[in-house]
Amino acid sequence: MELTLRPKVPMYCLQGAAYVCALGAAEAVDARIRWPHALLDERDVPLATVTARGGYDDDGLFIRVAGEGLTEEMATGIRNCAADWEAAIARREGKVAGPLAPVLEAYVDRLAGFGSEVEVVFPNGNIAAHGTFCGVDVWGRATVRTASGREVEVAPEQVSLRPAD
Q1: Residue 94 pLDDT greater than 90, yes or no
Q2: How far, in Å, CA of 150 to CA of 144, rounded?
Q3: Residue 28's closest CA among 81, 88, 66, 107?
């Protein structure tokens, strides 16, 4: 399934689009989110993966949302969440600390593994760090606190998180 959204948000907010779309899909079907934007059922079985790519054309800003396993119910949730996100940003006159600021609390509430031990894994499979998944910032970066107390901040382009063995 693929859909196109045209939220009236500042261009820098496009970085948060996939998170917002995952949140909307998760809320629609009462799912959890595996950071950054995969949906899991109550047994942590994958339901869907949300991808979102943004850009600008003659009609203005757009977000193309796609994903394996997305349903029409999830698409409705995505549209609703994106509209709420747009409205929240508009109320702040486009001035938000980061693209996830208006939805961060709801996003974190849906995260699977938040507060649990995780491994930070590079794309090649090597483990970069081991610690507690303790935060997500307004840009979508995850924070993992290691046993030594060091906090490692990572973006989904760099690594993935998986439950520690």
Answers
A1: no
A2: 8
A3: 81
Contact 19, 140 (CB under 8 A): yes
Name the helix (H) or strand (E) containing 38: strand 38-40
Q: Left (φ > 0), alpha (ψ -120 to 50) or beta: where does 44 sit? A: left
Pairing of strands 142-146, 127-136: antiparallel
Other beta carbons within 10 angstroms of residue 19's beta carbon come to 26
Region of residue 34 (phi > 0: left; psi between -120 and 50: alpha; otherwise: beta): beta
CA atoms within 13 A on the CB side of 151: 9
Q: What is the pLDDT of residue 90?
A: 94
d(CA 99, CA 15): 7
Q: Are 152 and 131 spatial neighbours (Cβ–Cβ below 8 Å)?
A: yes
pLDDT digits (tens, 9 = 90+) for 96-146: 999 999 999 999 999 999 999 999 999 999 999 999 999 999 999 999 999
pLDDT range class, residue 165, cuts 50, 70, 90? confident
